[in-house]
Amino acid sequence: MGILFGPFVLVYEILLLCLIGSNHHLYDHYELGLMIITLLASLRLYQERVRPRLPAFSILTLLFMTVYGVAVTYNNFSFFRARVALANRLRDRSIPATSVDNGWEYNIDVELQYADHINDPRIVNPANSYVSVASPSGICSMFWYDRTPNIHALYGVSFDPNVCYGPAPFAPVHYSRWPYSTPGTLYVVRYLPPSTK
Questions:
Q1: For FRET with 115, which of 31, 40, 106, 140 sits at 20 to 30 Å CA-CA?
Q2: Taking the alpha carbons of 108, 111, 113, 118 in that order, is the dihedral positive or negative?
Q3: Distance (Å, rounded) from C-alpha 37 to C-alpha 32?
Q4: Degrees, nearest 5: CA angle 120-85-118
């Protein structure tokens, strides 16, 4: 394992460093696979050179990180399910998906239902497919509005019911959060003043 591990890590890190100067984004999850291999190699090295048993502190740290990882994953899934439930409620009330800002992930999915690509100036094929999008007016901002020109948000999803132009006439969605005893809540808020809708 040691013979291949060093060159693999070196080449992998060089390739990641090459991404910094390109148009690609460098995310921390690119290091996860390498971290697992490094953790196993460090564990083996410790057991061979220091002592065969791990200290109690390392076991406690591992348990803490495991519980933390499970809680964060659970909270993310619960939050995403709440966003989908809210989108379904709006759809049931005949609000088109193109009228709702439900977060960039949802917006990208909706955009791809109405267009064959994401609006990005770097797209080469099809040629001249980029459409310049004016910044939306109003007090509410939509993340990546320029990437999703088919979305003209009248409503948005928020943790705070009083942002933008206040709450819309839709029931909020509650979702569970670990380790908190109170649930999280998502609200639908207006992106336009009530009179202009």
A1: 140
A2: negative
A3: 9
A4: 10
Phi, psi of 187 (to 5 degrees): -120, 155
- SS3 for the chain is CHHHHHHHHHHHHHHHHHHHCCCCCCCHHHHHHHHHHHHHHHHHHHHHHCCCCCCHHHHHHHHHHHHHHHHHHHHHHHHHHHHHHHHHHHHHCCCCHHHEECCHHHHHHHHHHHCCCCCCCCCCCCCCCCCCCCCCCCCCCCCCHHHCCCCCCCEEEECCCCCCCCECCCCCEEECCCCCCCCEEEEEEECCCHHHC
Residue 26 lies in a domain: no
> Is 167 inside any structural domain?
yes
**Which tokens belong to 149?**
């020109």
pTM, to two decimals: 0.73
- pLDDT tens digits for range 53-111: 988 898 898 899 889 989 989 999 999 999 999 999 999 999 999 999 999 999 999 99
Distances (CA, A) of 154 to 1, 35, 173: 56, 43, 19
Instruction: Give domain status of residue 113, yes or no.
Output: yes
pLDDT of res. 196 = 54
The answer to whether residue 11 sits within a structural domain is: no
Cis peptide before 161 (omega within 30 of 0): no
For the chain, what is the domain count?
Answer: 1
